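Appendix B. Raw example, untouched.
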Amino acid sequence: MNTEGGPRYGGAVSLQSVEEEGRRVWPDTSRARRADLAHNVIDFVRLLRANGLGASPAEVHDVVRALRFIDIGDRYEFYLTLRSVLLWNPDQQPLFDELFERFWGGWADEETIIREDQAPSVQSAQSERVESQSGDASYSAMEALMEKDFSDFKPEELASVARACVAIAKRVATRKSRRYRITSRGTRVDPRRTIRRNVKYGGTVLELSKLERKIRKPRIVVICDVSRSMEQYSVFLLQFMHSMQNVIGRIESFVFSTQLHRVTGYFKHSDIQTALEDIAKEVPDWSGGTRIGESLKTFNDQFARRMVDQRTVVIILSDGLDTGQTDLLDEEMHRLHLRAARLIWLNPLLGKDHYQPVARGMAAALPHVDVFAAAHNLASLQALANSLATPHGPRPTPHALVG
């Protein structure tokens, strides 16, 4: 996971802000952070112009047209396309490369697949070009939706949240592996197979054997706190779990308050409202107290052996306001951390200004957490999806400091 510049809380990498001399500094906005590609291209052109490169808003049209003919999942091909259209002066290539890495570094590494029917159209680029000329002050409705705290949503906005959650889940579902498979539609040529295939033509290359990266869906276990203190967030987080399970498939879902309950079967409903109603009926301690340690012990004893291994990412969604035994929580987090490939804790309170994880439950859990991040809005869930969609290296060393 890309943790550059991110802090650690007791060994956990934060995906959100950086504490710097007592104040919270949010990530640089001059990065690809919008929900669609056309908007990101517009922002990149703005960045180039701000740094003295001669790209113009009119060239957004050409970039979008060119991107429809390449494999956007191929980072190098994506880079070459943007460079060929937007870089006019070869002497400025080092600056262009630096700005490309700065802007697209995390986004391009996600290996996001945009299929032909989802690719931005020329017409959309033309309309977005008009918006780009109006300045950076205006935010799109999607941006406002992504940044809005879940506690501030109105009932009529829930359908938009559901659609956004599905889009976020699709990012994870289309993660590309480093491995390749034989295909007739790939953009990478397999030299050995191509040579063997054309022996019958006397060595003249008439047919190409192609490869494309395999889609690798991660194995994920999600454990969500539905206690009283999480009431204003749990419905939205369950919506996210529902979308992940229906889009990705390889998801095991649990909820807990004072006890742990497996809810994977309930999320097989295509309608989230039906699933939530059924769960509320079957979970007697919904909106009750919080016993995280006891709930994790149940998971470790009854489910972890067959559901969690060194390829599994475990995500805990909780504010960490535990009323149970903190010694037990510490022990069970340690057990789970040893078994999983990565242990992620998403806390809605982390999205609030001046929050510090000093509650005794949160403090006990943090030494065993690989990633500690917010879960208070759609943007924070998007950050999680980006991390899950990006291939990871070795697990971070516990208690190490970053930045």
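End of appendix B.
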